[in-house]
Each structure stands twice: as structure tokens, then as C-alpha cells.
Amino acid sequence: MPNEKTPLFYDIIEQRRSTRKFQAGRDVSKTALKRIVDCGRWAPSGANVQCWDFIVVDDPQMIKRVTEVFLKQAQRLVDHAKGFPAVKKTYLANTVAIILVIGDPRWKVCFPHSNSAEWVKEYDDNNEAIFLCSLGAAIQNIQLGVTAEGLTSSWLSGGGEETTNKDLSELLGYPDWMTAFGTIPIGYPIASQDRRYRRPIDQIIHWNGYNSKQYRTNKQVDYYESTLRPFAMYRDSELMTDWKDMDQKLGEWSEAFTGKTTNPSGTLEEKTDFSKPRSIGSATKRRRKIND
Ligand SMILES: Cc1cc2nc3c(=O)[nH]c(=O)nc-3n(C[C@H](O)[C@H](O)[C@H](O)COP(=O)(O)O)c2cc1C
After folding, report:
1. 70 within a domain of the structure (yes/no)
2. Do 85 and 214 share a structural domain?
3. What is the torsion angle, in degrees rounded to the nearest 10, for the CA atoms of residue 70, residue 71, residue 72 and residue 77?
4. How many CB atoms are located within 10 Å of the residue 52 CB?
5. Ligand 1 atom closest to Cα of 19?
6. pLDDT tens by residue, the chain, 292 residues
7. Are residue 162 and residue 213 in the same domain, yes or no?
8. How would you label 184-216 residue by residue, b for 16+ Cβ within 10 Å and e otherwise?
9. Which of 13, 18, 84 maximizes ligand 1 atoms within 8 Å of its Cβ, making it the mutation to test the pocket?
């Protein structure tokens, strides 16, 4: 029946959550971990290159050592990426396993390469996207497999930072020119983490072409970055309309973040430099105060 939801599949999609508090003293079988990795194995990849390897850390001593690497990584964020609402990574110590998804860049050679000088950059740039998207598909499949096993996880990108990746490669023995793009700590959640903010479906779906009234303005991106981000990342509700302090948090931005029409005028903006934060909002200011 093509128009009916397959319950288990949709439940797993919706229940997959980034959980950062795990019960201590639990364990998981190697058989379950193997089933989870098998979900990654079935992910799609450009040219079917399967540009990944999966390192499963389930030895408590090794979990401790990987945790130490991520404690340093998290401290670097606090010291050198002020304003980002990072959480402490001590919770990694309570994982039953940590799966690292390692990307092997050599396989990019199998993606389309241009033999005309003027097209080299275009294909090379897209090859990077193909490589990273393939790894993202594998990481996502693994997180879904974790959910299907009744466990929970998060998706850490910090292993992809050069310094952290070097520490991990020394610890785990993979070549340092490969990269741990995804680190997936797995465990039993302390409390059920049911939902997270998602944009309403009618705001993101464009039928038969891009609807410019659903374009999110530069100012809207700035407001999310400077003010809403920590709440959207960590609060346990899908809709901002469920936030008790919604009026205070959203103010004039209410329709833009909770409704269908984000840009009533339908006017699009020119490409703008978003390579670094452009404004400082209340949440960022508070966090800076704590960190300074
Ligand atoms: C590419 C990518 C990188 C992420 N990196 C991190 C990370 O380094 N640390 C972390 O705690 N969560 C990370 N996350 C998880 C997101 O914060 C999380 O998916 C998002 O806030 C939505 O919450 P949910 O996964 O519970 O739905 C990452 C997610 C993705 C897709």
C-alpha cells in the first residue's frame, strides 16, 4: 500500500535521537554491534566505492581512552570556538560502545574527473561532496540501526578536526590521512529523549519549484545562530510553539520559525558571506560571559 506509513520504519526515523546522557554499567552484545555496523555497510556511496571503515570500540579500557581524546576535543571547543553551545563529553565514559566511521579519501579517484582544464575544479569540488555525503549516509544508517536495537547514540563530528583525528589515528592505529568523520557513542539513555525541534513540513516542502516565500532571510539565519541555537539543539520538543517561553525567545520571529511563510515579500537576497558568525545574541553573550 504505497500511501500508508510502514509503522516500524517511521518510528525508527522519528525516534533516532542525539542523546548525550547514558546509563553507567551497561553492556551490549557483539552480535548487536555487528548488526548495527551492517546497517552502515548497506548505505549507498558514490560509484559504490564504500569509502569507509568502521572501528567498533567496545573494550572498556579503549572506551576510556577514546573518551579522553574527546574530553580534550571538547575543551578545545570551549577555549577556541566560544559561543558554540557545546556540551561536556564526560558522558562518553558511559557508552556501551563507540563506533568510528573512517573515511578513506583515495576512493574519490573513482568519481568523475575532468580531462578539460576548465572543468577540473567543478568536478573536484563535487567529488568532495560525493565523498562526504556517502560517509553521511553510512553514519545515518548506523544511527538508525542503533535505534532499531533499542539503544541510542549521538553523531560527533569532532573526530574530523585535524588534531582530534591525529589523536584518534594514533590511538586506534588507522593511517592519519584517513579521517574519523563520524564518531557514534552508543548507550542506554538516562531518560527518554523523545523529540527535537524540526521545522514545520509546510515550511520546507516546495512543490514543483522553489517558493520564495519560504526562503529564510539572512537575518533569520543570524537570529538562529546568535539566539535560538542552544534551545533548538537541546530542548525536548519538536515545535517551538510548545516552548513555554516561546514569546520571549521568538518575539517578532514567531511566524518565521513556526509558520509556513518565512519571507512574506518573496524577495530573495544576494549571496552573502556566512563563513563566520555575524552577530551576537543573548544566548551567545551569556555563554561568552560564562566562558571568559
Ligand atoms: C554532520 C553532523 C554533525 C554533528 N556533530 C555533532 C557533534 O559534534 N556533537 C554533538 O553532540 N552532536 C552533533 N550532531 C548532532 C546534532 O546536534 C543533532 O542531530 C541535532 O541537534 C538534531 O537533534 P537530533 O539528532 O536529536 O534530532 C551532528 C549532526 C550532524 C548531522
Report:
1. yes
2. no
3. 90
4. 24
5. 26
6. 555 767 799 999 999 999 999 999 999 999 999 999 999 999 999 999 999 999 999 999 999 999 999 999 999 999 999 888 888 899 999 999 999 999 999 999 999 999 999 999 999 999 999 999 999 999 999 999 999 999 999 999 999 999 999 999 999 999 999 999 999 999 999 988 789 999 999 999 999 999 999 999 999 999 999 999 999 999 999 999 999 999 999 999 999 999 999 999 999 999 999 999 988 766 556 555 544 4
7. no
8. bbbbbeeeebeeebebeeebeeeeeeebeebbb
9. 18
Kindly state whether residues 241 and 125 are assigned to the same domain.
no
State whether 146 and 96 are in the same domain: yes
The reply to whether 171 and 235 lie within a common domain is no
Report the domain count for the chain: 2
Q: With respect to residue 194, please indicate whether it lies within any of the assigned structural domains.
A: no
Ligand 1, pocket-test mutation among 14, 155, 231, most atoms within 8 A of CB:
155
Looking at 133, 161, 187, the residue that finishes a domain is: 187
Residues with CB under 6 A from ligand 1: 17-18, 20, 154-158, 196, 233
Domain containing 181 equals 7-187
In a domain, 193, yes or no: no
Q: What is the residue whose three cell numbers read 582530534?
A: 164
Cell digits for 58?
Answer: 567496545
CA of 114 to the centre of ligand 1 (A): 34
User: Given 118, 152, 187, which residue is the final one in a domain?
Assistant: 187
CA 105 from centre of chain: 20
Give the whole-angstrom CA distance, residue 44 versus residue 53.
14
Q: Is the pTM value of this prediction over 0.85?
A: yes
